[in-house]
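sry for the spam today, last one i promise. C-alpha cells for design, 160 residues
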C-alpha cells in the first residue's frame, strides 16, 4: 500500500464525516474493525485495556459503529441533535510499516465542531491499521488518542 493511497483514503473518511455521509463512512471499516478511544487516568496515563478500564469510546467490531450511525440518522441520539457541523483536518500522516496488503499509520487530527452557536475543538493522534480488500482499502483497527479529554459534552465518532 503506497503513501498516496493511504492519504487519499484517510482524507475521504474525514470528508464523509464532515458531509454526514454516514453509510459511506461505515463502508470505510472492515466488519471486524476495532474502534477504541482510551481515556486518560488520574495519573495522566492512557488506559490500556478497553475490557477492564474506562474508555471514551470502545467498539470491538463495526456493529457498534453501525448502531451509532443508526441512532444519529433516526434522531435517537439526543447528544447529536441537532447534528453539529464539523471540519476535520489531518496532518503528519506517517506510515509506520506497510506491505502490499496492510499498513500501520499514525496521524494527527484537529476537528472543529459547531453546534448551538459554539465551536469546540478536538485534537489528538490516531493510530490506524488499514487493510487492502477486494472492495478497496478498509480500516481494520483504529485507536484515537484525544489530547483534550476535558470536554464540555459527550464525544462522538464525528468529533474525531
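last one done:
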Amino acid at each position: 500500500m503506497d503513501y498516496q493511497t493511504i492519504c487519499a483514503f484517510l482524507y475521504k473518511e474525514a470528508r464523509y464525516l464532515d458531509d454526514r455521509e454516514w453509510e459511506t463512512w461505515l463502508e470505510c471499516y472492515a466488519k471486524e474493525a476495532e474502534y477504541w478511544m482510551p481515556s486518560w487516568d488520574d495519573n495522566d496515563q492512557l488506559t490500556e485495556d478497553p475490557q477492564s478500564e474506562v474508555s471514551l469510546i470502545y467498539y470491538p467490531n463495526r456493529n457498534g459503529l453501525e448502531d451509532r450511525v443508526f441512532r444519529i440518522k433516526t434522531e435517537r441520539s439526543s447528544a447529536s441533535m441537532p447534528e453539529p457541523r464539523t471540519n476535520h483536518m489531518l496532518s503528519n500522516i506517517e506510515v509506520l510499516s506497510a506491505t502490499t496488503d496492510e499498513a500501520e499509520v499514525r496521524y494527527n487530527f484537529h476537528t472543529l465542531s459547531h453546534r448551538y452557536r459554539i465551536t469546540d475543538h478536538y485534537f489528538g493522534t490516531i493510530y490506524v491499521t488499514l487493510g487492502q480488500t477486494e472492495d478497496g482499502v478498509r480500516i481494520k483497527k483504529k485507536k484515537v488518542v484525544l489530547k483534550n479529554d476535558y470536554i464540555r459534552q459527550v464525544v462522538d465518532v464525528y468529533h474525531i
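The chain has a mean pLDDT of 90. ok im logging off now
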